Protein backbone atom coordinates (compact mmCIF):
# COMPACT_ATOMS: atom_id res chain seq x y z
CA UNK A 1 0.00 0.00 0.00
CA UNK A 2 2.81 2.38 0.91
CA UNK A 3 4.71 1.58 -2.30
CA UNK A 4 1.62 2.29 -4.38
CA UNK A 5 1.18 5.67 -2.68
CA UNK A 6 4.83 6.53 -3.34
CA UNK A 7 4.40 5.59 -7.00
CA UNK A 8 1.28 7.77 -7.32
CA UNK A 9 3.05 10.75 -5.76
CA UNK A 10 6.07 10.18 -8.01
CA UNK A 11 3.91 10.04 -11.15
CA UNK A 12 2.09 13.25 -10.18
CA UNK A 13 5.42 14.98 -9.52
CA UNK A 14 6.86 13.85 -12.87
CA UNK A 15 3.74 15.03 -14.73
CA UNK A 16 3.94 18.44 -13.05
CA UNK A 17 7.64 18.67 -13.88
CA UNK A 18 7.07 17.76 -17.53
CA UNK A 19 4.24 20.30 -17.74
CA UNK A 20 6.43 23.04 -16.24
CA UNK A 21 9.35 22.31 -18.57
CA UNK A 22 7.20 22.12 -21.68
CA UNK A 23 5.41 25.34 -20.67
CA UNK A 24 8.76 27.04 -20.18
CA UNK A 25 9.96 26.07 -23.66
CA UNK A 26 6.62 27.01 -25.21
CA UNK A 27 6.81 30.47 -23.64
CA UNK A 28 10.36 30.88 -24.92
CA UNK A 29 9.12 30.34 -28.46
CA UNK A 30 5.78 32.22 -28.09
CA UNK A 31 6.20 35.14 -25.67
CA UNK A 32 3.15 37.06 -24.50
CA UNK A 33 4.71 40.47 -25.14
CA UNK A 34 4.34 42.22 -28.44
CA UNK A 35 1.70 43.79 -30.64
CA UNK A 36 -0.61 40.89 -31.23
CA UNK A 37 -4.25 41.36 -32.08
CA UNK A 38 -5.55 39.10 -29.32
CA UNK A 39 -3.83 40.68 -26.36
CA UNK A 40 -6.39 43.42 -25.65
CA UNK A 41 -10.04 42.91 -26.43
CA UNK A 42 -11.79 46.13 -27.40
CA UNK A 43 -15.48 45.41 -27.86
CA UNK A 44 -17.73 48.01 -29.45
CA UNK A 45 -19.57 50.14 -26.92
CA UNK A 46 -23.02 49.02 -28.04
CA UNK A 47 -22.04 45.37 -27.51
CA UNK A 48 -20.82 46.18 -24.01
CA UNK A 49 -24.07 47.98 -23.20
CA UNK A 50 -26.18 45.05 -24.44
CA UNK A 51 -24.16 42.64 -22.31
CA UNK A 52 -24.42 44.82 -19.22
CA UNK A 53 -28.16 45.35 -19.68
CA UNK A 54 -28.76 41.66 -20.31
CA UNK A 55 -27.01 40.42 -17.20
CA UNK A 56 -27.99 43.21 -14.83
CA UNK A 57 -31.71 43.10 -15.54
CA UNK A 58 -33.68 43.18 -12.24
CA UNK A 59 -35.54 39.91 -12.98
CA UNK A 60 -32.28 38.05 -13.51
CA UNK A 61 -30.69 39.44 -10.37
CA UNK A 62 -33.73 38.69 -8.23
CA UNK A 63 -33.96 35.16 -9.66
CA UNK A 64 -30.37 34.48 -8.58
CA UNK A 65 -31.16 35.79 -5.11
CA UNK A 66 -34.26 33.55 -4.82
CA UNK A 67 -32.45 30.57 -6.47
CA UNK A 68 -35.26 30.16 -8.96
CA UNK A 69 -34.64 29.78 -12.68
CA UNK A 70 -36.30 32.42 -14.82
CA UNK A 71 -36.52 30.33 -17.97
Description:
- The chain is built from three helices and no strands.
- With 71 residues, the protein is mainly α.
Write the layout of secondary structure elements.
Elements: H1 2-29, H2 45-55, H3 58-66
| Quantity of strands, as a count | 0
Give the terminus-to-terminus CA distance: 51 Å
Mean pLDDT: 75
Number of helices: 3
Helix content: 55-70%
Helix-strand makeup class: mainly alpha
- Taken in chain order, the helices and strands follow as HHH
Structural shape: flat
Rg, Å, rounded: 24 Å
What brief labels describe this structure?
71 residues; mainly alpha; flat
Q: Could you write a compact summary of the structure shown?
A:
The protein is 68% helix and 0% strand.
Amino acid sequence: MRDMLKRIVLVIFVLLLVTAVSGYFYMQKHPLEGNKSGTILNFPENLQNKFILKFTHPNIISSFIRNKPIF
